[in-house]
Every structure is written in structure tokens, then in C-alpha cells.
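Protein modeling request. Please complete all fields; requests missing the sequence field cannot be processed.
Requester role: graduate student
Desired output: 3D structure, C-alpha cell encoding
Chains: 1
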Amino acid sequence: MKTLHKLVLKSYLGPMILTFFIVMFVLMMNIVWRYIDELVGKGLSAGIIIELMTYFMANMLPLGLPLAVLLAAIMTMGNLGENYELLAMKSAGMSLVQIAKPLIILIAFVSIGSFFIGNNLVPYANKKVFSILYDIRQQNQNIEFQDGLFFNGIPDMSIRVGKQNPETHLLTDVLIYDNRDSRGNMNTIVADSGYIRLSDDKRFLLVTLFNGETYEQTRTTTGNSQWFTKSSLRHHIFDRQDQIIPMEGFDMGRSDANQFSNSQTKNINQLQDDIDSLELLVSTATNRSYEPLLKERIFAKDHSVLDLPDSLKPDHSGFYSPVLMDSIPHLSIRDKEQIWDQAAASARNSRNLFSFDETNAKEALNQLYKSKVEWHKKMSLPVSIMIFFLIGAPLGAIIRKGGLGMPVVVSVLFFVIYYIISLSGEKAAKEGNWDAIYGMWLSTFVLSPIAIYLTYKATNDSTLLDTDWYAGKIKLLQEKMQPFTAWVKKIVKFKRNGKKQKHIE
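Delivered output (505 residues):
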């Protein structure tokens, strides 16, 4: 490797790592704000939150890599141009493509790696994210009492607290209804004060009460009868009472991630299998739904209702004529009613079968659209990374500005364009308005000509974004327009003087 190539590669790796972490931090902040309501107040451990954020970060890699590559390319080539290093390399006879050769090779490896990230790592991370979020949503809230209101978040228990101290968490005027006994017995506890909290592992409810009374109602049944025959009430006074009650639902359980399966949790081979199966299912369901309507009229093919006379046979259009049926004198009212009832039942059955088949076809079609979108998304990611580099490197060579100022503005502008086009194409593909190949590759089709144009202009040392060049052109235009401007000023001055003279007269 040439020394200049080592210099260019070393100049790129630093900004690449820096911009990657900056981009991932911004994307993670968006994720945190989106799910902040589901994470706060659940008593989650630091390990669960770190695990969830790690999987979210893996899920954001396909979105963060293109932006990081674009920003780093603009910064690197901009720094080289600002320090005249790029000019020195070109003076030595190296073209822009030769200068960026090691970066092109590096980005090619990054693009290949991004495919394996999107194909293997992201589906696994999505499974874990769906599993953890489901477990968090299934987890019960912490016990929070409100003054004067009953808390019914514990099964078969109802607790009312008169007042609670926010600093010491001491509860006063405590009333507890306990119906956990399977035999129907109920305990009522009244206490002046106490503490009620969950254990650290959230498996037990720790109850400590002071100066209270317990009322236990016992019901006695005979044999297998569910009716009680005797009822007794026991009363107990206590100075202090401690209870450890087993709890369920407050500790976070862990579900099997494999049960969360959709188009976002599958690799490209699994998606292809789903696409083949869904296409066959959609074709079968569609044919079963619409073929009877296209080939023959389903309401007129059943002649087993009655042995009809010739005058009541279907006409050339395939329908029975109700006017013709009413004109037959030898048909009794009961026969006519039987014909109408049978026809109505046949119509209802046909409509129900048609609706059921149509619903299945639509559901399969929606799944087919989503699977195709995910398939093309995994294939378009490596290409988008290469295109962003081919946009960023020429732009940096043209702008010749390093740092995080101008490169950030230009990068965000291109990324917003790419993101809007991608979202629009993905939405149209998922709704079936466009084919998936057009919807998911739309941003590539739009940005590829821009990348080719910028590469051409940078290779030919274009002053496309040189502000000094534009300032010089504007100044030259002003100089050329100066005689015309002076002539216009004279005409305006002459008209003003004429109006003043007329006003004086």
C-alpha cells in the first residue's frame, strides 16, 4: 500500500468512528423518547435496560451506517481539500478515483458486512426486542397507593389507605380486604398505620401493620355442596402484624423470543420461503373467490330447488325472472315461497363463502407485501452505503471544508431526502400500490445519478459549490449590468424631475 493511501485511510477511519457513534447516539435518543413511557416506573433492573438498548442499537445499524459513511466521507475529503493535501496529490498526477481507492475498498467491505448485519443480526435483535417489550408490558405496575382510594392491583385483595407519608412511606388508616382463600373465607384487617411494599425480587408482598384488628369470616360447607351451612366470625386484636404474601406478575418473566415471528425477524432465505408460500396461497384463495363469478353465475347454477317448468327456466342472462315466476298460474304460494327461501339461502351461503375467501386472500396478500419489502430492504442496504460514499467523497472534494459545520448540514440534507424517499416507497410497496422492487429501490434510482454527476464534477475539479466562484460570477455580472443600471437610474430620475415640474406648474 502506498504511503498516500495509508494517509487517506488513516484520515478516514477517525471521522468514520466518530460520526458512527454520534449518529447512533442521536438514533438511540429517538428510541429512548419513543419508549420512555414503557420503561419508566416498571422497576426494571439496569441489566434489562442495557440489554434492550443493545438490541435497539443493533436494530438501528442499517439506518446509521449510510449516514455515518456519508458524513465521514465529506469530512475526510473536505479536510484534505482544506489543507491543500488533495491539491498536492492531484499535482502528483493522481486522480480523485486513485486517491479514494483505499476508501472504496474499505466501503466495499463495510457494505458486505452490512448485508450480514441486516440479514442475521437485525432479525435476531428484533426477536429479542419484541420479546423484552412484551414481557415489560405484561409486567404489573409497582404498588402505588392513593389517599382514600382502593388499590385493586393485587388479585383477590383490595387495599385502602387513608394517607401516606411521601418521605417515610408510612401508611395510616389502613383497610385490607383479603379474599385469597379458595374456600370463600374473607379476612378484613383494620390498622392505624403500617408499611406495605414489594420485596426486592418482586415475588412477595411484605406487610407490616401496627395497632389493628383482624376479622376472619369462616364458612363451612357440607359434602361437595358449594353452599355454606355455617358461618363464624373471629376477631383478633394485635399491636404488630407481619405478613409475607406470595405475588405473581410483579416480577418480569422472560418469554421465548422464537415465538415472536414476523417479516422483521427472518433472514433472506426464510423470507424467500415465505414469499413462495404466500404467492401460492394468494393465488389459490383468489381463484377460489373470484373464479365462480367469472366463469359462471353462482346464483343460477343450482337447479335442485324444484322441478321447474320450461317457463321458469333461467333466461339467456342466467337469472330467474321473478315477474315470469309470478305469472305462472299453477304455482301455489307455498311453492313460490319455497323457491324464494331456497334462493335467498343459496345467496347468503355464497356471499359468506366469498367474504371468507376474500378475507384470507387479503391477509395473505398483506403478509406477502411485507415479506417482499423486507427482502428488498436487506438487498438495498449495501448498495445505499456505497452510493452515500460516492456522494460524500466528491462533495468533500468540491466543498473543501472540514470539521462538523458544512459537512453536517450537507449530510443531513441528503439523508433527509433519502429517508423521505425510502419511507414513501416502502409505504407504497406495503400497500400494494407499487411493486416492492420499485418501492424499496426508489431512493437508489434517485440518488445514483446524483452520485455519478458529483463524481464527474469532482474528477474534473469543478467549482460547483465554491462560494468564491459564485461571488466572482455575481460581481462580474454586476459589472456587465452597470451601464444598463445607470441608464435605468437616469430614466427614473428624469421622470421624477418631470413630475416635480408639472406639480409646480
